[in-house]
């Protein structure tokens, strides 16, 4: 269990760092777009598409971090009414449903990514599949987060901490 916990923490610290870098890059690209359009009077054709792509990746990586902290669908009223084994059974059911749904999303996203692999984003001159790849990657990371929380038996959602706290 210690190895699982170490691997999970390392993985999601990396995901958090990457999501933060992508968010800063999206903000910089958006800022450049505003400067180019309204100050320089020469709008760029790539900055809006890049901003959108970076935000898509940021959101889908952020979803995995939210699931890591236990922010998944739950039935709070039912959860608070149940005790002991019944509460744990409800948590198992919620985890199985979440993992199944996220697995389905990852599978569909993988197929979508594969189907569009020959389509390019004109202003960035890259395959649009690099943007679509955020769906299976984010859903898979979220499913891993739910699975690890389930295996470690987290009864209550972990407190949300920033990276400076640990």
Structure overview:
There is one protein chain. Strands 1-2 form a two-stranded antiparallel ribbon. By secondary structure, the chain is mainly alpha-helical. Residues 155-160 have low confidence and may be disordered. The chain contains 6 helices and 2 strands.
Short description:
With 166 residues, the chain is mainly alpha-helical. Helix content is 73%, strand content 2%. Strands 1-2 form a two-stranded antiparallel ribbon.
**Rg estimate, integer Å:** 19 Å
Terminal Cα span: 19 Å
Task: Summarize the amount of helix as a percent range.
Answer: over 70%
Class based on secondary structure composition and strand pairing = mainly alpha
Series of H and E elements = HHHHEEHH
Shape: elongated
| Low-pLDDT stretches | 155-160
Strand order of the largest sheet: 1-2
Tally of strands: 2
Which percent band covers the strand fraction? under 5%
The number of helices is 6
| Arithmetic mean pLDDT | 89
Largest sheet: 2 strands, antiparallel
């Amino acid at each position: 269990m210690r190895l699982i916990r170490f691997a999970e923490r390392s993985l999601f610290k990396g995901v958090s760092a990457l999501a933060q870098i992508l968010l800063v890059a999206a903000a910089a690209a958006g800022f450049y777009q505003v400067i180019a359009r309204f100050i320089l009077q020469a709008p760029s054709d790539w900055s809006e598409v890049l901003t959108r792509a970076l935000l898509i990746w940021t959101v889908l990586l952020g979803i995995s971090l939210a699931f890591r902290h236990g922010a998944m669908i739950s039935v709070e009223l039912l959860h608070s009414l149940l005790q002991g084994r019944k509460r744990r059974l409800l948590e198992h059911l919620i985890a199985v449903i979440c993992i199944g749904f996220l697995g389905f999303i990852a599978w569909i996203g993988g197929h979508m990514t594969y189907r569009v692999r020959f389509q390019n984003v004109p202003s960035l001159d890259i395959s649009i599949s690099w943007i679509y790849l955020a769906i299976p990657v984010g859903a898979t990371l979220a499913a891993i987060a739910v699975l690890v929380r389930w295996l470690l038996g987290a009864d209550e959602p972990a407190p949300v901490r920033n990276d400076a706290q640990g």
